[in-house]
Amino acid sequence: MRTLRKLAVAFVVVGVAGACAATPAFADTAVSTGFGFGQVNQGFYNYTDQTITLSGTLWNTAVTPNTTIANEPVTVTEQVAGTGAAQDVGSATTDANGNFTVTLTGQPVGGIFEAVFAGATANGNDYAATTSQPVKVHPVLYSDVDLAYTAPPKSPVHRGEKVKFSGKIYVPADDQFGTNPQTPIAGANVYVYSGSEHTSASPHAVTNAKGEFSISVKPSATTTYTTEVIANEPWPYCLYVYDTIFAQMTITVVNPK
Question: Considering the domain boundaries, does residue 245 fall inside one?
Answer without folding.
Answer: yes
